[in-house]
């Protein structure tokens, strides 16, 4: 499109469509820089009826954009801090399980770390009875293939997929009979998925603590650590 020039007094004023004006301004981004007086004479109407100059509008837009960028940066910083804290907590959990002298210490250390570092109130560890038959270790339970618990969670043991979300009251009582507060949501994770060592269940009184579409990385990592600690002491 040709450069805009002032028409001769005797020449007809060309009529431009809005599309042509927009196209011209896009093609000549320095137009307003070469005509700074327009920045203060062009008015933009608000819905309320008040008017501001174009430069004031640009300043407002830049401020809003800057605020969005600051908010996004703040969210990224907070996420980084959360990830750092979570990494440190997972490392503490790993050290606790590795150093545990017995299965009882594994169960106690696991419950303590999850409660203090992750705010998870209830923990259930079940090991298939074919590999673990003891009933004297608090926190670790043998799972009878024909027992009520395995039959209740038949779909979980069949698919060996992580399940997260609200937990019905009957299932909550089955997994966490001694819970101080009713468990509203839980994450149920397989131990040694390919070998089916058992299950790890984490429960919370907060109905929003575990959600069906939440990330599974932390749960998988925790289950791997627990399975390795148990396997080494069977």
TrEMBL record:
Its keywords, alphabetically, are:
Coiled coil
Q: Which Gene3D superfamilies match?
A: 3.30.450.40
Q: Which Pfam families match?
A: DUF484
Q: Which residues lie in coiled coils?
A: 52-86
Which domain of life, per UniProt? Bacteria
Q: Does the keyword Coiled coil apply?
A: yes
Q: Which PANTHER family match?
A: DUF484 DOMAIN-CONTAINING PROTEIN
Tell me what this protein is called. Answer: DUF484 family protein
């Amino acid at each position: 499109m040709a450069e805009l020039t002032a028409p001769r007094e005797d020449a007809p004023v060309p009529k431009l469509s809005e599309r042509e004006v927009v196209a011209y301004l896009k093609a000549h981004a320095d137009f307003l820089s070469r005509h700074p007086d327009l920045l203060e004479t062009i008015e933009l109407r608000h819905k309320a009826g008040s008017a501001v100059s174009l430069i004031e509008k640009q300043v407002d837009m830049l401020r809003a954009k800057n605020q969005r960028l600051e908010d996004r940066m703040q969210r990224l910083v907070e996420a980084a801090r959360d990830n750092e804290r979570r990494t440190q907590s997972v490392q503490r959990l790993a050290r606790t399980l590795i150093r545990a002298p017995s299965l009882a210490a594994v169960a106690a250390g696991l419950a303590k770390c999850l409660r203090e570092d992750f705010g998870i109130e209830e923990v259930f560890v079940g090991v298939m009875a074919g590999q673990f038959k003891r009933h004297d270790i608090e926190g670790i339970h043998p799972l009878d293939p024909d027992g009520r618990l395995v039959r209740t969670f038949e779909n979980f043991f069949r698919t060996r997929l992580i399940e997260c979300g609200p937990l019905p009251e009957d299932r909550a009582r089955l997994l966490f009979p001694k819970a101080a507060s009713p468990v509203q949501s839980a994450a149920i994770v397989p131990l040694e998925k390919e070998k089916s060592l058992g299950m790890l269940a984490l429960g919370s009184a907060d109905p929003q603590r575990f959600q069906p579409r939440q990330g599974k990385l932390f749960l998988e990592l925790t289950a791997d650590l627990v399975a390795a600690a148990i396997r080494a002491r069977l």
